[in-house]
């Protein structure tokens, strides 16, 4: 049995119910990534076996508690969102050249880029098979989410237009690449639990806000945590020159004020960070900079907006757990 949920829920009875259903989701997830071919099976199980908080299926199950959370379709919806998430990780790690994922070597480090990409495709296919059994509306929602995931990755790769605002561009990337699936996780849970359209839209909007907040908190963690906490090598994004909010805020500040220290730090970020000692120095400088605090404050503000959106929901342990869920996402980066 898994732990009583990766994030705190406000009521022990609710936490026990959700944990029991999360165990069923985990069992179905393992079955969904199983293949007869041993190499494919090993590669497909790689990230599933590495664990993770299962935030998306947890949010699906929690949202379903606003209706009839015992429906079997809710469990399949939770499997769909986690399969989709796992599939996207295989692709993301190839594009970002990330050496670690969840504390283990990334799949492309073990089997190479081609295998990692194709395994990601296979998992997307399995997610599509599962969602097809949930009906045409679920298929359309899944397709729209998949499109946003791809657009987010594409826009991240292309960068903002010459006259675009890099910070706003980045926030849109986060909304598409991360928040879209978190919003869909909540949407499908409430929808298949038989909730009213108003409740479905409320939890989806909540998921959209906390999805962006979650990624901003991750940007902070990439700079401030050790690898055994974040599950990836600290500073990976800096080394690969992947845009993150603290770096974008630093560039904005350096351009606006011309502060010599900020300008010098930007120059180092644009240089070669392949040497571990150079990367460590840049990491230390960024950790001490106000842009890290500002990024954390932006995440906290988004969580506050998300919690305000919950006002129409009935008072009780489910609503309280949504608040706990949201707060815990950004508390990781405190």
Structure characterization notes:
It is built from 16 helices and two strands. With 334 residues, the chain is mainly alpha-helical. The protein has a single domain (12-331), classed as Farnesyl Diphosphate Synthase, CATH 1.10.600.10. It has a two-stranded antiparallel sheet with strand order 1-2. The longest helix is centred in the middle third of the chain and has 28 residues, at 197-224. The model is unreliable at 1-5 (pLDDT under 50).
Topology diagram in text:
Blueprint: H1 12-32, H2 38-49, H3 55-64, H4 72-96, E1 100-101, E2 104-105, H5 107-111, H6 113-132, H7 136-158, H8 166-192, H9 197-224, H10 227-230, H11 236-239, H12 245-257, H13 260-269, H14 276-287, H15 290-309, H16 317-331
Antiparallel strand pairs: 1-2
Helix pairs in contact: 1-3, 1-4, 3-4, 3-8, 4-6, 4-8, 7-8, 8-9, 9-15, 9-16, 12-13, 12-15, 15-16
**Oligomeric composition of the shown chains:** single chain
Major beta sheet summary: 2 strands, antiparallel
Which geometry do the CA atoms define? Answer: globular
The structural domain count equals 1
Order of helices and strands: HHHHEEHHHHHHHHHHHH
Instruction: Assign the CATH superfamily.
Output: Farnesyl Diphosphate Synthase
Return the CATH architecture.
Answer: Orthogonal Bundle
Keywords: Magnesium, Metal-binding, Transferase
InterPro entries: Isoprenoid_synthase_dom_sf, Polyprenyl_synt, Polyprenyl_synt_CS
Family: Belongs to the FPP/GGPP synthase family.
Protein name: Polyprenyl synthetase family protein
């Amino acid at each position: 049995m898994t732990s009583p949920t990766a994030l705190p829920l406000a009521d022990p009875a609710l936490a026990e119910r959700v944990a029991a259903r999360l165990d069923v989701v985990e069992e179905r997830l393992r079955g969904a990534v199983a293949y007869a071919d041993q190499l494919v099976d090993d590669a497909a199980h790689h990230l599933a076996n590495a664990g993770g908080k299962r935030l998306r299926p947890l949010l699906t199950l929690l949202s379903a508690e606003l209706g009839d959370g015992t429906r079997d379709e809710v469990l399949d919806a939770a499997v769909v969102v986690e399969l989709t998430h796992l599939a996207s990780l295989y692709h993301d790690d190839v594009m970002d050249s990330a050496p670690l994922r969840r504390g283990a070597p990334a799949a492309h480090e073990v089997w190479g880029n081609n295998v990692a990409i194709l395994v990601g495709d296979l998992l997307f296919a399995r997610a599509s098979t599962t969602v097809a059994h949930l009906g045409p509306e679920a298929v359309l929602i899944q397709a729209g989410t998949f499109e946003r995931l791809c657009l987010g990755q594409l826009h991240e790769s292309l960068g903002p237009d010459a006259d675009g605002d890099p910070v706003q561009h980045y926030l849109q990337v986060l909304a598409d690449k991360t928040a879209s699936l978190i919003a869909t996780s909540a949407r499908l849970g409430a929808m298949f639990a038989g909730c009213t359209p108003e409740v479905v839209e409320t939890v989806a909007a909540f998921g959209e806000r906390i999805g962006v907040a979650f990624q901003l908190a991750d940007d902070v963690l990439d700079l401030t945590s050790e690898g055994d906490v974040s599950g990836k090598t600290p500073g990976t994004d800096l080394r690969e020159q992947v845009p993150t909010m603290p770096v974008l805020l630093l560039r904005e500040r350096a351009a606006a004020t011309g502060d010599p220290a900020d300008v010098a730090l930007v120059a180092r970020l644009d240089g070669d960070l392949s040497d571990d000692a150079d990367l460590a120095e840049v990491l230390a400088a960024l950790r001490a900079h106000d842009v890290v605090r500002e990024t954390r404050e932006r995440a906290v503000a988004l969580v506050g907006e998300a919690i305000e959106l919950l006002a129409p929901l009935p008072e009780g342990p489910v609503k309280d757990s949504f608040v706990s869920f949201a707060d815990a996402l950004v508390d990781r980066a405190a």
